[in-house]
Amino acid sequence: MSRITTALIAIIIALLVGMWYATSQMQSLSTQLKEITQVSNQQKADLENIQRQRVQAAELDIKVTQELANAKSEIETLRVGLNTGTKRLRIAASCPKLPETTAATGKPDATSPRYDAEFERNYLSLVERIKQSETMINGLQSYIRTQCQ
């Protein structure tokens, strides 16, 4: 019977060692599962954040593009108005005084001060560039405020 007892004790010891090994493996796997779950949750949160930023950037892009289109439309309306004569540019200008020796004819010396066509083109070009620059700068500032946190 001592052989049977020895064999049973050996089997019990082997089972205990096997159970200890299986338990340690399960604990290791459980730890790894927790780590993987944490990484997965973090990646999911990061992806949601990226998606939110993309949506915000797209909305901002649409807004700035619309503002640029509105600015170009305003400039074009001004350009058409100046060409048709329905709008006029007002500038602070003065005509040089004529010498006192000129004989008076009873008529005004000239019409009101007027600018030439090149001035008008330059003015419209500058106004257009200023509007575009302001819109772009405002858009970039909005992007920095919303996306670069």
Task: Provide the descriptors you would attach to this structure in a database record.
single chain; 149 residues; mainly alpha; 2 helices
Describe this structure in words.
The longest helix is centred in the N-terminal third of the chain and has 83 residues, at 2-84. The chain has helices spanning 2-84, 117-147. Helix 1 runs antiparallel to helix 2. It is rod-shaped. It is built from 2 helices and no strands. With 149 residues, the protein is mostly helical. It starts with a helix and ends with a helix. It has a domain at 62-84 and 114-149. The mean pLDDT is 84.
Give me the number of helical elements. 2
Total beta strand runs: 0
State the end-to-end CA separation.
78 Å
What is the N-to-C order of secondary-structure elements (H for helix, E for strand)? HH
Roughly how much helix do the residues carry, as a percent range?
Answer: over 70%
Choose one word for the global shape: rod-shaped
- pLDDT < 50 runs, ≥5 residues: none
User: What share of the residues does DSSP label as strand, in percent?
Assistant: under 5%
Cα radius of gyration in angstroms: 41 Å
Mean pLDDT across every amino acid position = 84
Brief account:
With 149 residues, this protein is mostly helical. It contains 2 helices and no strands.
